[in-house]
Design brief:
CATH architecture: 4-Layer Sandwich
Distance between the termini: 42 Å
Order of helices and strands: HEHHEHHEEEEEEHHEEEEHHEEEEEH
CATH class: Alpha Beta
Radius of gyration: 19 Å
Largest sheet: 7 strands, mixed
CATH superfamily: Clavaminate synthase-like
CATH topology: Double-stranded beta-helix
Helix content: 25-40%
Shape: globular
Number of strands: 17
Structural class: alpha+beta
Strand content: 15-25%
Length: 342
């Protein structure tokens, strides 16, 4: 099996799933305790040692040179409490790269939960609701999700290999594969960097320097552009474009691996080779329970993939050594922050 083009049905669990050992948890707890009381937004390094450091090197290699997916299990959320788990998650993220802002508020540490936003409104980012999230990539090289609390029902996470989706379409529906290499209009949903328009053009698949095919995709942003911004110069989505997106979604469904993250699970993804999706979830009446932490990360410059020049319209820069690090959402006047609890 080519690690860069896998199918969920033949991806060995031992390749991407890791249960944290007693030794690794002890080291993780020690490092988390060094961050107590710190403003995490100012922390740029939290060195790990021993087998935990070895594990995170393995995870980083698998993300950037392998299947693009890793899952760590076993962080004791109830025993440790949210602040310690948050610090631990942030420390693990720093072992993989530099955090970048995830929204217009400048959050380096994101909170994925239902905050009552209306999923029917095109400007809503769906991670702030209990609605299903379609296949998408986040706007950073690497993404981490740490489950603190799970919903009473639903909320399963699905991951697919986007390069396998592209290969499948090339083999079975080449016209759709070619269509997905052409630009689609994306809505910025009001999170507009300095000097940028409310929308931007981006293909679903692009050939990067060196010949790799990489992906950037979120159908909800494409749909929002059609709903909100047709008067702002957004071209109408054609029937062939819609059909190509449908084919990509169908292929992703068929090729995916599914998991329901449990408290203490930490999922890591490489955005350029994977898509992820989330099922709708529900909690008991009167409670909004499901709560995940999120990190968007730029990997070290010597390990980061070369990206197409066109990604700069979303990533700010495609330079591996960019400062501030490439990726994320930066709007004028917002200072990055890392809220531990919302």
């Amino acid at each position: 099996m080519d690690a860069s083009s896998w199918h969920g049905a033949n991806l060995p669990p031992q390749r991407w799933q890791h249960v944290l050992t007693t030794e690794q948890l002890a080291e993780l707890g020690r490092v988390a305790d060094t961050l107590k009381g710190c403003n995490l937004a100012t922390v740029t390094d939290a060195p790990l040692s021993g087998s935990l450091a070895e594990l995170m090197r393995l995870v980083r290699s698998e993300l950037l040179s392998g299947c693009g997916l890793a899952l760590l299990r076993g962080m004791p959320v109830v025993e440790w409490g949210v602040p310690r788990c948050t610090a631990a998650f942030y420390a693990l993220g720093l072992a993989l790269g530099s955090p970048v802002p995830q929204n217009a508020a400048g959050h380096l540490l994101g909170h994925v939960r239902d905050n009552g936003s209306d999923p029917a409104k095109p400007e809503t980012r769906l991670y702030t609701t209990a609605a299903a999230q379609p296949w998408h990539t986040d706007s950073a090289d690497l993404v981490g999700l740490c489950c603190l609390r799970q919903s009473d029902s639903g909320g399963a996470s699905r991951v697919c290999c986007s390069t396998a989706v592209y290969a499948h379409l090339v083999a079975t529906q080449p016209a759709h594969a070619a269509q997905l290499m052409q630009p689609f209009a994306w809505d910025r949903k009001g999170e507009i960097p300095a000097g940028c328009e409310p929308w931007f053009p981006m293909p679903v698949f692009t050939t990067a320097p060196g010949g790799r095919v990489v992906s950037m995709y979120d159908r909800s942003f494409i749909t929002a552009a059609q709903t909100r911004l047709r008067g702002a110069g957004v071209p109408a989505l054609t029937a062939s474009q819609a059909a190509a997106l449908d084919s990509a979604d169908t292929a992703a469904d068929a090729l995916a691996v599914s998991m329901r993250l449990q408290p203490g699970d930490i999922q890591w993804l490489h955005s350029h080779t994977t898509w992820h999706a989330r099922d709708a979830f529900a909690d008991d009446a009167g409670r909004s329970q499901r709560h995940l932490l999120r990190l968007w990360l730029a990997p070290p410059a010597d390990l980061a993939w070369p990206l197409p020049a066109g990604f700069a319209v979303r990533y700010g820069s495609v330079a591996a050594d960019a400062q501030p690090p490439r990726g994320g959402i930066r709007v004028p006047g917002v200072v990055p922050c890392a809220p531990v609890e919302e």
